[in-house]
Design brief:
mainly alpha, Arc Repressor Mutant, subunit A, three-stranded antiparallel β-sheet, 6 helices, MarR/SlyA-like, DNA-binding transcription factor activity, HTH marR-type domain-containing protein, WH_DNA-bd_sf
């Protein structure tokens, strides 16, 4: 019985994506280090960009363990970037919002991450970058791209 041909070493898409993801993750972490933020804290700020969110909804949006979110929120609150207030409709819940400093930090993070993207994807045309973004969205959420 003939054996099936093997792909060339490191040619599997998952391996290539994991390898490039490691490189991209390191560059993003390095870029964020200058702002004193981690990827998790920066991503939390981005989830608050459209306005206050209750803490449980934020847990669901981020897909993190509640204790992990509490640690991130404690850090961000200590930096003066977010505030937590009791929900007037349900005193057991907290509403999380960006502070003015948090909004400024988010703009700075966006700028740093845009520069990092420009560096990472400098060899791609704008059309290729848009196509890659669509493909990655499709891989991570097959229902998102019909």
């Amino acid at each position: 019985m003939a054996s099936s041909p093997r792909s060339a070493p490191m040619a599997q898409l998952g391996v290539l994506l994991a390898n490039r993801g490691t490189l991209a993750g390191a560059r993003v972490r390095d870029a964020l280090a200058g702002s004193g933020l981690t990827m998790r804290s920066a991503f939390t700020l981005t989830q608050l960009a459209d306005g206050p969110v209750n803490q449980q909804a934020l847990i669901d949006l981020l897909g993190v363990d509640p204790s992990a979110l509490v640690a991130v929120l404690n850090e961000l609150e200590g930096l003066g970037l977010v505030s937590r207030q009791r929900d007037p409709a349900d005193r057991r819940r907290h509403i999380v919002a960006l502070t003015p400093d948090g909004t400024r930090a988010l703009h700075a993070v966006d700028s740093v991450l845009n520069k990092t993207d420009d560096d990472l994807f400098a060899t791609l045309s704008p059309t290729e970058r848009a196509h890659l973004e669509r493909l990655l969205a499709k891989v991570t959420d097959p229902g998102a791209c019909g």
